[in-house]
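Feature request, filed as a ticket because there's no other form

It would be nice if the structure record came with a short human-readable summary line next to the tokens. Right now we just get the raw output. Example of a typical job, pasted below so the devs can see what we mean:
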Amino acid sequence: MLRHNPDGQPMTADDQTTRDQAIRTAYRAQANVRLEAAADRLRAVEAKASSPNPAKRAGCSNNAACVSSSPGQWECRDCRQITG
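Raw output as currently delivered:
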């Protein structure tokens, strides 16, 4: 954005304001892209953690397709519905 202009005119206050607003807009857009990318990564991690994992088995079930992660353990869908 800064240009070396040895024989040119100095920037006016309006030119500086216009330049600074354009830079602020660019920084805001860049920050929004980073936030959206971080949110996408978080959603992907959460989706992976809550989806069934066929490589894991719960102690009560041999059906690996119905097993998913809950905090600190693996449990099947039937066990998740039991209360008490």
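Something like this underneath would help us a lot:
Strands lie at 67-70, 73-76.
The mean pLDDT is 75.
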